[in-house]
Amino acid sequence: MAVLHTHAIAGSHGGILTGLFAKPNLNRLFFGDSAHYIGLFYGFDDKSRIFRSGVRQMGVQFAGIMFVVFVNVLTTTIICLSIQMVVPLRMSDEDTEIGGGDASSW
User: Fold this and answer.
1) Rounded CA gap, 101 and 106, in Å?
2) Among candidates 26, 59, 68, 25, which has minimal Cα distance to 40?
3) CA 72: distance to chain centroid?
4) Which end of the chain is more exposed for a tag (fewer CB within 10 A), N or C?
5) Alpha helices in the chain (DSSP H)
6) For 57-67, how does the pLDDT look when each residue is reduced to its tens digit (9 = 90+)?
7) Please, are residues 15 and 27 in contact by the beta-carbon 8 Å criterion?
8) pLDDT per position as a tens digit, 7-48
9) Cα dihedral across residues 93, 99, 100, 106: positive or negative
10) What is the reported pLDDT for 48?
11) Do 35 and 50 form a contact (C-beta atoms < 8 A)?
């Protein structure tokens, strides 16, 4: 399945690029004060306060990515442990020796 590179990699890449290229006048539409929500690249030409806001925005983006990773790992662990209480998630040693495809036909 293409879950990892479709959702995790592309979503993380989009989050990082948002932190780099967040345009101040577009952020004003959502947040009111655009000086606090500015992309890192838009802060290079302005004062150091604006640059610090860009670094802060990158931190917010990375924190969001780490939060999503944490929630996904936690949820997947809970789901797998719940399923394992009902049905074994691993094949037996005998079935492993036969092979996955052959064991299902027996």
Assistant:
1) 10
2) 59
3) 9
4) N
5) 3, 10-21, 24-31, 48-86, 93-98, 100-105
6) 889 899 999 99
7) no
8) 889 999 999 998 898 887 887 777 776 667 788 888 776 666
9) negative
10) 64
11) yes
DSSP-derived secondary structure for 53-70? HHHHHHHHHHHHHHHHHH
Name the residue among 48, 44, 39, 45 with its Cα closest to residue 16: 39
CA neighbor of 61 nearest in space, from 11, 9, 7, 15: 15
Reading the block at residue 16, the tokens are: 């990082």
This prediction has a pTM of: 0.73
The answer to whether 42 touches 19, Cβ cutoff 8 Å, is: no
Q: Report the Cα 23 to chain-centroid distance in Å.
A: 22
- The domain segmentation of the chain, as residue ranges, is 3-105
Q: Helices H, strands E: what count in the chain?
A: 6, 0
Cα(47)–Cα(70) distance, integer angstroms: 35
**Which of 58, 56, 73 minimizes the C-alpha distance to 8?**
73
